[in-house]
Amino acid sequence: MRLDKLLSNMGYGSRKDVKKLLKKKQVNVNEEVIKDGSHHVNPDQDTIKVNEEVVTYKQYIYLMMNKPPGIVSATTDLRDKTVVDLLSKEEKMFQPFPVGRLDKDTEGLLLLTNDGNLGHRLTSPNKNVGKTYFAKIKGKVTEKDVIAFREGITLEDGYQSKPATLKIQISGDVSEIEITITEGKFHQVKRMFEAVDKKVIYLKRLSMGELQLDTSLALGEYRELNEEELTYCQSLN
Ligand code: URA
User: Distance between CA 214 and CA 170 in Å, rounded?
Assistant: First the structure.
């Protein structure tokens, strides 16, 4: 790829800024000063330095965030703060987007990446990747609901949801449950409980397939996926 494009992608400013760097002889490739932005480099083989600092090129970014409530899962929004707004300048440069939306009031595991293929693999209903949520429910969740969810709930618009696994942790006026679904329809979990006359009052995503929310991440914090997590995501072909 072109040297100026690579440097610009890696945060060294616009093509114009990069041109200045090159003109000032601050860039070298394999120990040779390069002044021409159109110079072709192979990021896997060439050693590129700016002011004697090695530039490590990467194309994709994969972040796990513990999404806080009150923030929308989008890249931009006219009214609300978005999950991308929570990222630093360095990460924003990669133009990541959230994989599989969470509602504004939902917390928990959210993946952000600029790798469209991976996004598709995790969210496509055909892949049957289970998404597990913890929820607090207004109303007494019972074994009858467990059976109904296992059989597939009919939502208010007539949509027949796929079988879901419901585990009751506390059954009371306010119940606590874990639910695993393989689809990601709009407000899916909330609508499933509405269909059995109950209301979700707190919702947090715990996992997507084998990808578990890192419990050391406070709300709003994020980190890059580790090797094992990345290998898992890439295995979902
Ligand atoms: N189901 C919902 O109702 N909301 C979410 O944010 C995720 C799943």
Answer: 24
